[in-house]
Amino acid sequence: MxxxxxVISVFELNNLSIYKTGPGLVTVNSGNLIWTGNxxxxxxxxxxxxxxxxxxxxxxxxxxxxxxCKGMGACTVTLDQAxxxxxxxxxxxxxxxxxxxxxxPDTGQTKCYNNSAEIPCGTPGEAFYGxxxxxxxxxxxxxxxxxxxxxLPDAATTWTMIRDNVTGLIWENKTNDGSIHDGxxxxxxxxTNPATNGGNHGTCGMGxxxxxxxx
Length: 215
Fold this sequence. Notes:
By secondary structure, this protein is mainly beta.
């Protein structure tokens, strides 16, 4: 080198633009997002790989990504060009829960609390709104069943099973009479025949009743 030289490095930058459709937090694993209302932007070197995570505020649920990411999990974006990502947050309502697949029974919780004491359950926009006690969704409902699954009246004094009318699940009514229904008895499913077990032989010999093979 026979003279002073100068070197200029040129870095290409791309924008990551984030949009939120409701109250919630979106974080990124590198750098910072500058937020204005529900819109955020970050500027990164081209080729940067970023991971975004979303968490809904109380009373809302994160319902998924759209744009450069899809689905419900963490969002990974490669900034080979400017990218847009939307985080969808929905208020928890019966209509929203109905779109989420199998229904879930209500917890039966009717009381609300602040940071230190019980309070009246508020309305949207008030402090501490959105607790379990604010909602009655899929109220608890059960039906007593006999040994062959026939529904019994609510006033029945003996029954073999209980059906959860919200989920459709059926539960055995345990006893303490030493019978097959006794609460001390445990059972496991086992089928060692590969032609019938679907590739899973279950758990063999772990119950406290004699193991019965399935053929």
